[in-house]
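Database export, one record per block. Field names are fixed; values are copied verbatim from the stored entry.
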Amino acid sequence: MRTEHSPSKMTFLRPLCLLSLALRNASGAQSCSRLRRRTNPALAAFASSPFLITRAAALHNGAWRWRPEPAAHRHTAQRRGTATAMATTAEDEVEAPEPGDAPTLGFVGAGMMATAMVNGIVASKVTEPGNVFVSAPHRSSLDRLAKLGIRTSDINVEVASGSDVVVVAVKPDVVPAVLREIAPHLRKDALVVSIAAGIPLAVLEQLAPGKRVVRVMPNTPCLVSEGATGFSMGSLATDEDRDTVHALMGAVGLAVEVKEALLDGLTGVSGSGPAYIYVLIEALADGGVRMGLPRAMAIKLAAQTVKGAAEMVLETGEHPAVLKDNVCSPGGLTIAAIESLEKNGFRSAAMQAVITVASKSIEMRNTEEEKRTK
């Protein structure tokens, strides 16, 4: 049986579906390629996915309905640059959704991660700035967002009562207090999304009884639509909630659904991962400066090298070890450098960084679980 949803429930996906139709309408691979080059890459790839194509068809047919796609395509991570053009006729044009049609996306908290998500979501045109509502105790952070046309307030309850999706984006130690404050004021059908590390779904659901909850672990590259996000569904969350979270986070990078038990390890790899890479870039640049390169040039070369190597892994699908071996000539310079890295514990240090973060996340989660059961 097909389940219908009202437009107000699904309009987060409308702009993406319009882009999906535009990509489908491009006459041939060259036209599609040109359109992608003019579009945010992560957004174009997500719009080209089977997930959005099925919804684009529903929008084009005049109904906003759930249309299930093959199981093999559901809840899989979509990566940019892998979709192919789908040729259709020129009659497939659709009108843009009415401004202000989308539900309100609220953020309680305006720290670094929340700001990165808000900026990325607005830049990717998932929704209009006026449909985003943010609260924080300090006006300085809110003023920066207000310049983008985003609604702001220093009262958390205003955001909670005025939003369809409420993202709890505060530090883990204040999540319980914030949820107790806003829970009585949440809309009846509001979706609660927490980006706090170490606060399990069971605790979130206890603090917001009867509400649909999703845990999300994003990272700061969401700001430039190159994020890597994992999310886990609460016991009351629906397929529609899954699609909403996937649409929001998939538009600003990679979004994958995982079991909650895996969020700790994911936090160690991608949640904190950008910081490790910044240290690596800085270290490579320092080495370049030591050998005479100007600082600015060394940083740019190091950053581009990391970016290029990452793209090689993503685009080729090869194991990193294979790509590393391809660079190392017998008796050459690079294998000597690899030997130095191994002698100095580079690989072990990187692994231990992930384990340390994951262990800390598990410790936080266990502490919160103990509080809940007392």
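Remark 1: The CA atoms of residues 214 and 233 lie 5 Å apart.
Remark 2: Residues 1-10, 26-38, 49-100 have pLDDT under 50 and may be disordered.
End of record.
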